[in-house]
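Regression check, NAP case 336:
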Amino acid sequence: MTDYRYWRLNSRPEGHEYAAALSLETAELQTVGDGQVLVQADYLSMDPGVRVWMTAREDSYSPPIPLGTPMQGQFLGPVIESRADGFKVGDIVRGFGHWATHSLVDPVMSGLMVLDPSVRDLRDHFGTLGLNGWTAYCGLVDVLELKEGETVLVSAAAGATGSVACQIARNMGCRVIAIAGSDDKCAWLTETLGVDVAINYKTQNVEAELAKVDGGIDVYFENVGGDLLDAALPNMAMYGRIGISGLIAGYTSDGGLPGPARFDQILMKRLTVKGIFLPDFLAKGVNYYAPLKQWYDEGRLTGDFDETKGMDNVLVAFERLMRGQNLGKVVVDVRN
Ligand SMILES: NC(=O)c1ccc[n+]([C@@H]2O[C@H](COP(=O)([O-])OP(=O)(O)OC[C@H]3O[C@@H](n4cnc5c(N)ncnc54)[C@H](OP(=O)(O)O)[C@@H]3O)[C@@H](O)[C@H]2O)c1
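Current build output:
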């Protein structure tokens, strides 16, 4: 029998005290059952949403992860054993499993997908071409019905989801305003991704900067919530649309975010506010992949990575993500 390693959630973390709440464990791999697939992870994806599942919140879109069980998350790597139709040894797959060196999964429950091996950097199957990219495309195109010439605001814009949202809006002929947490991120957004304006919310007055936007904001792709949502609301255009993709400013709290304080602007500006939740649209993923892949091949969609190496350092990577120390997609290379 082979051993594997996984991160176990032992208690609900306080703030960013992840090392006190999770431990790295070793266990024996179970035998692959009928209909199951065993995957050896090359990479793990770090995703802020799982921080909500670490809390005791029962009112989230996913129940709390039971204490004493493996931490949940996305993996990417080769199939090493399969007893399920459609998956064979050597296929490179992505799915929902555990923060682990191996995940033994039911392909349907884990959303397991055989990946296009022609993609030049497999890690892009997490970020630009993966669920971050799909969320951005689904949110802007399907949910918010973005149109050419509109003014689009994106928060957490230098992150995995936000950076794709900025590029989709740019590629669709929109004016793009990006919010991020450092001057370096803002420079990357304007110089590499070609957004029109980048605002550093840590050093600039976001509401005052947004007030300079001629005509107001037609579409806000929101990843953060809290103060940034309050800064955007009075600066929306009449009949503007807001898509709530994420509310990371409240993910460490058991109670979620209060507010927004400028809720009145939804009436004053006749705004539409919609939640964006990619798993509701997962079956449409192939429709999102095709245009993203075309832009990727044409050099009109790019991303960056914040990569950490080693299973031992998964919590370091997760904390970097949650503290905003990343530019681009946060991944952990767990091959060694
Ligand atoms: N709805 C869905 O289906 C779905 C799917 C995937 C992701 N998402 C959401 O998309 C958002 C981004 O996720 P991601 O995976 O792409 O991560 P990411 O943007 O690569 O990383 C998170 C970023 O959030 C920013 N941030 C962290 N704490 C913040 C705070 N308190 N206030 C303001 N900004 C903060 C940081 O950048 P700064 O430097 O800008 O602070 C950080 O880099 C999250 O809210 C996530 O839940 C939603």
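Comparison notes: The chain has two domains: 3-127+303-333, 131-279. The chain has a mean pLDDT of 97. No diff flagged against the previous build.
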